Amino acid sequence: MKKFLTMLLTVVLAVSSLGLFTACGGDEEQQGSNEKIAALICLHGEGSSYDKNFIDAFKAACKAKGLTEEQYTIVVDIPEDEPAYEKAAEFADAGYKVVFGDSFGHEKFLIKAAKEFPNVQFCHATGTAGGFLNTEDTSDDAPANFHNAFASIYEGRYLAGVAAGLKLIELYGEDITADEAKIGYVGAWPFAEVKSGLTSFYLGVKSIVPNTTMEVRFTNSWYDPVAEQTAAEALIQGGAKLVSGHADSYGVPTACKNANVPNVFYNGTTNEDTFVIASKINWQPYFEHMLDGVMVEGKSIEKDYCGTLENGSVQITALGKAAAEGTQTKLDEVKAKLMSGEIKVFDCATFTVNGAPLTEYLADVVDTGDFTGETNVVKTEGGKTYFAESEFRSAPYFDLIIDGITVGADVVTPVK
Asked: Are 65 and 98 in contact (CB under 8 A)?
């Protein structure tokens, strides 16, 4: 009997070693499905168009890569302060392979966590410390497991500007006056990221309406619905015939709806009759790249990733109810020229600074905190001299105010 049991056990072990008992394979698959992979840290929640854009793309990328909801997590309302480090460290300690922060101010806190957890990858949107495109340089402060990402969104904003210009022509005709050609823009902060966006939007409008001018109001906050709406209202009262912006609430579209003024949005859409179009960064391609870097053998995460029109990272939305007839055809034409290089958004032949063309400019590309420019970012290629945004670093460094754009008084939330 003992001999029979011994033989039976030998057979069972042999069969098991060949993987013929499906229960064992099922257990391994279940263990794999519980492995912690990715965590997303957001400055605000889904009420912010900016953060919702990240959240939607993160969920889509995780689904595309076959992750279960147990393998990724999202936290919201994490300020640009020590709590960002605490959350990042908490996720790393819990076994997540990669942690992503979605706001500029999260950067130094993610770097702090990256130094503490060298076997975990930390990624960050809009930052400057991870590395620099086309060079071997990196910030002295950033460890090897820290990465930055952004996109050439200025191309999307330029396209949105083209749509805005066509709307002005539809409203006021080809002989549009200077007063009719005035537009407004609500910016969060007077940072390079915002200035790059407002300038590229303006240049898109200017390509259609050469006599356009634009007034900008800053709220000094990424998310302040009251201040954003108040700023837009002030611009409209000041004569703006169309308003766009770069801030994270629906304050600007609300002001435009109330005043029946066309609106170009960012990171979201509305169903209002005043909505023309929006531009946005589609973060799904980057998130899939990031997940591959921690899930696929032989792949890694780029130190400084810049998404483009070509890979779908830079997008414009479907046209809104207020878009002018023929807008889509024109946008398709301009997009093709942007992708081919025939159009350069910051072509120095299309704008001046203090009355003079831009021939060189030292930008603060290698950001060491001294706010001093060290890299000449004006290039000449193919007969065009242009400001080479996103060619030296993914995060924007265009921080000029060009002629035709004026900056009005900052707007803060009214005290009640």
From this structure: no
DSSP state string for 291-338: HHHHHSTT----SEEEE-TTTTSEEE----TTPPTTHHHHHHHHHHHH
* Architecture in CATH of 35-151+284-307: 3-Layer(aba) Sandwich (3.40)
- Write out the H or E segment, with its range, that includes residue 125: strand 121-125
Q: Residue 56 burial by CB count (10 A; 0-12/13-18/19+): exposed, middle or buried?
A: middle
Tokens read off for 235: 């611009």
Residue indicated by tokens 């921690």: 294
- The domains of the chain are located at 35-151+284-307
Whether this prediction's pTM lies above 0.70 is answered by yes
Q: Which residue has the higher pLDDT, 3 or 285?
A: 285
Percent of the chain with pLDDT over 70: 88
Rounded to 10°, the helix 225-237/251-259 angle is: 40
Question: Which element (helix H / strand E) includes 316?
Answer: strand 314-316
Closest CA to 341 of 378, 377, 381: 381
